[in-house]
């Protein structure tokens, strides 16, 4: 009848020793059961914590690999960009040098043509004299031969002008390629910076999770320590009760000091 209800403190003194022992054993059993349940819960929490730590370790390793890959990517991208800029600078320098050379040649030819034109205008009034001079000098057979010579010069000038125009076109194409490369590199760097910011945010969240679980683990250890102390106090109380009973009833103490259940049975 006493198993299903709690005996008031004022009636505990009137109970039989065996009844009090049964009540005490029931209380100890309940404490043991509660302790066992807490141990099981603690074990499960420890398993979950271990799994969480393994996950965090894997995530940190993955993030470390991502950071290393990102550093390697940045280095490779920087090297590619430097090579592209170097090539573009060399091409631009060659194109500018070629354009300058053609421009100088063109200026020289134009100046030469202008000199020839001025000379022709100045000598036009002396046509008759030139015809006589051609006959005497023998440099040209006739005036048309002289015109053919100047036509050749004009053709050479046109060819040089075309070459100068082609050089300008190549220079414009090189500048366009440089602008495209710069735009692509800017887009790639922006995307990489965004990815790095996301990874840093994930790393900070993982660190916060680690701190939270470490605090929980410390709390679990503190609770387990308190329960262990309580269990030790219970065992000590049982030992004192056992020694008191055996001393009063003069029963031999043939039970080990660590065997709490045997002590309770003996009592």
TrEMBL record:
What the entry lists under InterPro entries is as follows: CFAP_domain-containing, DUF4200
Q: Which UniProt keywords apply?
A: Coiled coil
On whether Phosphoprotein is a keyword of this UniProt record, the answer is no
Q: Does the keyword Coiled coil apply?
A: yes
Pfam families assigned to the protein according to its UniProt record, in alphabetical order: DUF4200 (PF13863)
Q: Write out the GO cellular component annotations.
A: cytoskeleton
Cite the DUF4200 domain residue spans from the record.
Answer: 23-133
Stretches of the chain forming a coiled coil according to its record: 21-119, 164-216
Q: Which domain of life is it from?
A: Eukaryota
PANTHER family of this UniProt entry? CILIA- AND FLAGELLA-ASSOCIATED PROTEIN 73, COILED-COIL DOMAIN-CONTAINING PROTEIN 42 LIKE-2-LIKE-RELATED
Could you identify this protein by its name? CCD42 protein
Organism of this sequence: Tyrannus savana (Fork-tailed flycatcher)
Tell me the organism's taxonomic lineage. Answer: Eukaryota, Metazoa, Chordata, Craniata, Vertebrata
């Amino acid at each position: 009848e006493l198993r299903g209800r709690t005996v008031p403190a004022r009636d505990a003194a009137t109970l039989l020793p065996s009844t009090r022992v049964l009540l005490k054993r029931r209380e100890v059993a309940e404490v043991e059961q509660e302790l066992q349940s807490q141990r099981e819960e603690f074990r499960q929490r420890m398993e979950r914590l271990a799994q969480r730590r393994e996950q965090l370790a894997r995530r940190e390793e993955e993030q470390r690999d991502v950071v290393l890959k990102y550093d390697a990517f940045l280095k490779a991208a920087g090297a590619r960009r430097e090579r592209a800029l170097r090539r573009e600078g060399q091409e631009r320098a060659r194109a500018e040098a070629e354009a300058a050379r053609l421009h100088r040649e063109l200026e020289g030819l134009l100046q030469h043509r202008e000199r020839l034109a001025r000379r022709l205008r100045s000598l036009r009034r002396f046509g008759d004299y030139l015809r006589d001079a051609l006959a005497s000098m023998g440099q040209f057979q006739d005036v048309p031969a002289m015109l053919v010579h100047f036509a050749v010069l004009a053709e050479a000038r046109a060819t040089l002008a075309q070459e100068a125009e082609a050089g300008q076109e190549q220079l414009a194409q090189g500048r366009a390629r440089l602008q495209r490369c710069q735009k692509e590199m800017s887009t790639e760097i922006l995307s990489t910076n965004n990815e790095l910011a996301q990874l840093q945010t994930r790393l900070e969240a993982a660190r916060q999770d680690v701190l939270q679980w470490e605090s929980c683990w410390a709390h679990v250890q503190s609770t387990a320590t308190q329960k262990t102390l309580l269990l030790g106090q219970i065992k000590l109380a049982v030992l004192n009760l056992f020694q008191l009973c055996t001393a009063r009833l003069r029963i031999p103490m043939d039970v080990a000091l660590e065997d709490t259940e045997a002590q309770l049975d003996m009592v």
